[in-house]
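User: Can you help me understand a structure? I only have the sequence.
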Amino acid sequence: MSKATPVKTTLWDPAVYIKTERDAAAYLSAAWEDGDPKLIAEVLADIARSRSLTAVAKKTGFKRKSLRWALSHNRSLKFTTVLEVMRALGLKLKVAA
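Assistant: Let's start by predicting it. Here is the structure, written out as tokens:
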């Protein structure tokens, strides 16, 4: 009987693949469609990390550590924080019927 070859895996970081405004908008739109607030926070964190969390924190007025904590997927995010982070990222919320 032969031994199975171990499979090598690496962590997948979505922030690495968010290259353009369009990438960020599509990713965030998909999270909004899902409707899970924790997923939206996690996606905002991914987008912020893709752009430099420190730079986004400065634009929002948060300290970097506070912004990271606020966007933690274990937290409930205030809607005002969502809007502030989206504004700092250059993203807008659109509503359609």
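Now, to help you interpret it: The helical segments are 21-34, 37-51, 53-60, 64-70, 79-88. The CA atoms of residues 57 and 67 lie 6 Å apart. Let me know which part you'd like to focus on.
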